[in-house]
Structure formats: structure tokens, C-alpha cells
Design brief:
There is one protein chain. The chain is built from eleven helices and no strands. It is mostly helical. The protein has a domain at about 5-35 and about 105-220. The two termini are about 45 Å apart.
Length: about 230
């Protein structure tokens, strides 16, 4: 299933309430342009050179030179010949295994997976006034060029999924919040109390500030949600 093609069909099909502003188109263009890039992996820092550090410490403390007490006994400190670390008594030290406690970063979503989340945002917006009727479902399916069984099954499953704003917000990776809100706005006219309340709930769940929210509405020529 090519979710990017499905998203493009939904955005370009002139859904009721969709604004002609560039917000949604910009988001799609950013996805198609590969905006989500995997961060370059950072290699582990190079282990310190234990031998070099030990030699530097010896020079600082004067270790390795003949001490007064050693000379009085006719003995002289000899550095261990073995490369295995030893303590001051020449006993071999047991090296504890190093444990990597760093938490690996999750892999970035593919472009197709991002498009799936945006499709879900648009379908969620269509549920604000109630369940999506059979006529509305047929209308949406008619806008999709891809009529494969996999695509139809996916969309019908999304139609039947209960609307849960918090659950959807938690499914979004960090950095996609503003785009998801902008996509949601394209499918809403913001001319009913239910739609306005839904957008406020969505903005709160996505931790979008009133200023950011109004900026997105201005870009799409939609009524502002917050008054200065």
C-alpha cells in the first residue's frame, strides 16, 4: 500500500472544508522530498589509551624513578613487563566488563509510515461530527486512485476505529505535531462548536501553543482558534 499516494489523493480531491492554503501541500511536498532524514549514527568514543595515561601519571608523580627508601634497600622499582594491568603489588587486576547504559534512539519513520499517520489525522477530523456515514465512506474511497484490497481494508479499518485524540497524539513521533495538526485542519471547516472543540483538544494533546495554532490557521486561511 502506497500511503503517500493515498494522502496525495485526499489532499488534492477537494474534500469538504479543505482550504486551498499551502499548508497541507507543503507537508506533502516535504514528505515526498524526504524531509525525515535519519540522524547520522554517532560512533562510540574512542577508548582512552590506558598505557599512555599510566605513563603520564608516572611522570607527574615521579613513579618509576629510584626512591630513597628503595635505594636504601638496594632495590629499584621495576615496571611490570606484562601488558595486563596490575596493582601496586604486581597483582593482576580483574577488568570489569563495560556496560553500555545508553538508550538507543528509535529509528525514524519511513515516508510511507508518516503518510499513514497523516491519513489517520484526516480521517479523525471527519469523525468529529459523529461516525463517518456509508455515503461519506464511499465518497472518500471514490477519491482514492488505489483501490487495491489492501488499501480498502486499511481505510475501512480507520473508518471504524474509535476517535481517541490522546491515543493519536501519543502515536506521533516528536517533531510531527505541527504537521499533524495542519493536516487535520485541512479536513475541517471550523464552522461548528464540535470542530472547534476537537481542534483545541488536538492542539492540547500535541502540546501546540495558541500562537503556533493561530499561525497554522492563518496559513490555511481558517478561522483563528485563539484571540489575542
Amino acid at each position: 500500500m502506497n500511503a503517500i499516494d493515498i494522502l496525495g489523493s485526499l489532499l488534492g480531491a477537494g474534500q469538504p472544508g479543505a482550504k486551498g492554503g499551502g499548508g497541507a501541500a507543503d507537508i506533502l511536498a516535504e514528505i515526498l522530498g524526504g524531509a525525515a532524514k535519519a540522524s547520522a549514527p554517532q560512533g562510540n568514543p574512542r577508548p582512552s589509551d590506558a598505557h599512555t595515561s599510566a605513563k603520564q601519571l608516572e611522570e607527574m608523580l615521579g613513579v618509576g624513578r629510584e626512591s630513597a627508601s628503595a635505594s636504601s634497600r638496594g632495590t629499584q622499582y621495576q615496571a611490570p613487563s606484562s601488558s595486563i594491568p596490575t596493582d601496586i603489588f604486581g597483582q593482576r587486576k580483574v577488568q570489569e566488563p563495560k556496560i553500555n547504559l545508553s538508550v538507543p534512539k528509535p529509528a525514524p519513520l519511513s515516508q510511507n509510515d508518516q503518510a499513514v499517520l497523516f491519513i489517520r489525522a484526516m480521517i479523525n477530523s471527519a469523525k468529529v461530527d459523529g461516525e463517518i456515514s456509508d455515503e461519506e465512506q464511499k465518497s472518500i474511497l471514490g477519491q482514492i486512485g488505489d483501490t487495491s484490497p489492501e488499501t480498502i481494508k486499511f481505510l475501512r479499518a480507520e473508518f471504524a476505529r474509535p476517535l481517541n485524540v490522546v491515543e493519536y497524539a501519543q502515536s506521533l513521533p516528536v517533531g510531527m505535531e505541527l504537521k499533524a495538526y495542519a493536516i487535520s485542519l485541512t479536513a475541517i471547516s471550523v464552522d461548528t462548536k464540535e470542530e472547534a472543540d476537537y481542534l483545541r483538544q488536538l492542539a492540547k494533546a500535541l502540546r501546540i501553543t495558541p500562537e503556533q495554532c493561530n499561525q497554522i490557521h492563518q496559513q490555511q486561511n481558517a478561522p483563528l482558534m485563539y484571540q489575542a
